Amino acid sequence: MTHDPMAEIRASFFVECEELLESLQDALSVMADHLEGDGTQDTETINVVFRAVHSIKGGAGAFGLTALVSFAHRFETVMDELRCGRLVVDHEAMKLFFQAADMLADHVRLARDDASGSPPGSETLLIAVEGLMGDRAPEAEEEEVEFAPMGLSFDLALPDLGGPLDDDGPGPAEPDPADSDSVESDLGESDLGESGLGGQRWTVRLRPLDALYASGNEPFHLLRALAELGSASITCERAALPDFDALMAETSYLSWTVQLTGEIEESDIRAVFDFVEDVAEITVTKTPELAEDPRLCQPEVALAPAAPPTPSAADPVPEPTHTAKVLAIAPVAPALPVLPAIGQAVDLPPEHPLPPPSQAAAPTPQAVIPAVQAAAAQAAAPAEAVAATVRVDLDRIDRLVNLVGELVINQAMLAQSVTEAGLPANSAVMNGLEAFMMLTRDIQDSVMMIRAQPVKPLFQRMARIVREASAAVGKEVRLRSEGEGTEVDKTVIERLADPLTHMIRNAVDHGLETPDRRREAGKPEEGVVTLSAQHRSGRVVIEVADDGAGIDRPRVRDIAIRKGLVAPDAVLSDAEIDNLLFLPGFSTATQISALSGRGVGMDVVKQAIGALGGRIAITSERGRGTRFSISLPLTLAVLDGMVVRVAGETLVIPLSSIVETATLSADDIRSLGPETSVIHIRGGFVPLFDLGAELGYRGPKASYEGGIVLLTAQEDGSRAALVVDEILEQRQVVIKGLQHSYGNIPGVAAATILGDGQIALILDPGDLVENATGRTRSADTFLALAG
Amino acid sequence: MIETRSQSSAEVELLSFRLAEQEYSVDIMSVREIRGWTRATPLPHSPPFMRGVINLRGTVLPVIDLASRLGMPPVEGDARNVIIVVHAGGQSVGLLVDAVSDILALPRTELQPPPELAADLAHSFVQALTIVDGRMIRVLDLSAVLPTYQTEAA
């Protein structure tokens, strides 16, 4: 297979960009909050903004994305002014910063799609942003030479090249440039800003004993861990190294001195060495401020810290007289059990754990540089909370999810056959099976968690929609988001973007009044759109609320009548009128605006949500605002269900929708019309649906006395009682979509495979009730229509 | 289906099967596998010829009662019946038939278009006719047999 390594690196750069853009948005939001608060900005947040822009610029430079680099550079310049306190943030500036961040995202997107040039409005915006600097605005300086594409080997540390490769930032003074002989494991370099240098200085000396290597430890990892604590300058001392001839393979010769700067406690440093205390000499001393770095070491060895104890290709064998030829024989040497590994190590990255810290002709610089960069890359992140993550192809996760699904089915089949074999309940097989079931369930939960992602990026996209939409219609709107950390299946998040965009635009355009109207109504001019996410009884509920005028029900009704959607004399409840908004072809905007009101709208939203197995409900209060709440399944792969039997068929009903089960007595059942009944339960009347009749398995029964009903409730508060013949069990089922193989069936959400290999249908009670035939419910045609 | 695939080759291989004492066949290239009879889970609100869905190694496979689809009395559904799993037009579907009889290899020239005849329902599903050992064998047009499903909503 041929693949372009450059393309891969490029792809990972763009992934990195997405993350940086996200943290940029975050930091800007924090700044906006500060502005709302006491008006003071903290340096760290500004630094995050600066760093994000700076890193994107750096990476983009490496790929020769000139438009992106130039935009990022000019943006960065302004942010630098801010960082140095020469620029005061006000509302206007904040708005521009947000716009610039959006524009930066556009630039990144353009660059990713290989489009050249700048997004429209880029230059205008830049000029506006630079205008904030007043007279200090630079003469649009050209981007630096070092951003020309270059053919370096940035295979490992790519997105952080911004650090090592450029140092145009007028940030804090660099560590003495003459120190080129020591490896500056300099964390993101000047980006750390002054604030990072405010802490203590520590000198840590590490001299590993032979036992450290013998026990499989690796100084590189220790040094890296140290470097993650703060700004580190690492020096290798090799004075103890004997001549090549006298070198003993299993003797430790090297030691390191690490200058650490930052807010570090001694205990943090000690913690790094927790496991090697006995096998290394470690001294930790506090250095007086600005002590001179000890430079003890010659240039070429200075590179070694990144790969210190690894024998180089030239010298993997204990006997110094050995030549390359002998290398082939070496693995036989019985004294060194680990030797076979050396054969591979020869051209592997230096991290390979090898026991003897043999001195070598210094490792070739090419081999070391990536490692150094890797160390720098590792170290660049830790300022924020270190989140160790792995990027995995989504296909692989899906394959895993599918396999686990099969595992669950298989386990159920096994359980069934064991039960049929009639083994005693306390037999070893039964106990083992029970443990197996619990394990399966744990595995399943864990696998599902891999797919779950916080809704935050989605919400951030919505923040942008709000900014753009409010600018387009000339309203002051603030987006408040809650529960950004709520995790939802990745597919759900992806497919939620379009409907949410639509709803947010609607809220801004139709939901909120104009500033004048708001003033008249005694509300603040700035409207608030609230976007929230939360877990509620096994589902995730996402709400879009505005504090606008609420639904103008008489007008909605008029429009619906004019468009022939309802009969003129229809008697509609408020909820029914609200639900008219979801009818195809309904649009309340009397004027078609640039944003919404093209007659496609809420019905499309409703459809999209429905396709995700979700439901949408609407509540509105005149003068107070409108709230749409979307309820979605947490995952598209499994659900907890109640397995029931109806007319000989096995069905699964999502547990989340079931409130209670009951056995009917003659008193409970009241007939409503000739063909419909309600049951009287807990002081309320609930319509009765016979599942057997609704699904066409059989006709309605003569009497439901003694029948079992499942009481279900929907998000909008409506309840229904479903008649079943028998409740079998409660269990987790793997969802198998019917969409692909068959299509939509009203009232049926999906299918699943039971333990006996049979397929059972998973019902969607909400949909089922909405599509219920007039045979059991004839009075509510309008609700069915509106729903 | 047959048309497109076999323009180049002069031979065509057909899987023939029995359906209410008549012999039908499909291009063997569209056949994925043949399975014994399994009870299908009925789908509510589905057309009568839709037998339901079965579990085909973890995937949900819709099964069509071919006899009913062609306007004949529905297949009983017992251990003697088989389900032919075919893949056509991007979807997999099981066809419930009485029994599979044979694999026939014949020159393409022996396939004749069906005469423009009666308004028989089965007629529009037949793509070609051929005679083998004195028996008339109907070649099914799979794309006509498979129902067009509702596409996924937005």
UniProtKB/TrEMBL annotation, chain B:
<protein>
    <submittedName>
        <fullName>Chemotaxis protein CheW</fullName>
    </submittedName>
</protein>
<dbReference type="GO" id="GO:0006935">
    <property type="term" value="P:chemotaxis"/>
</dbReference>
<dbReference type="InterPro" id="IPR039315">
    <property type="entry name" value="CheW"/>
</dbReference>
<feature type="domain" description="CheW-like">
    <location>
        <begin position="11"/>
        <end position="151"/>
    </location>
</feature>
<dbReference type="GO" id="GO:0005829">
    <property type="term" value="C:cytosol"/>
</dbReference>
<dbReference type="InterPro" id="IPR036061">
    <property type="entry name" value="CheW-like_dom_sf"/>
</dbReference>
<dbReference type="InterPro" id="IPR002545">
    <property type="entry name" value="CheW-lke_dom"/>
</dbReference>
<dbReference type="GO" id="GO:0007165">
    <property type="term" value="P:signal transduction"/>
</dbReference>
<dbReference type="Pfam" id="PF01584">
    <property type="entry name" value="CheW"/>
</dbReference>
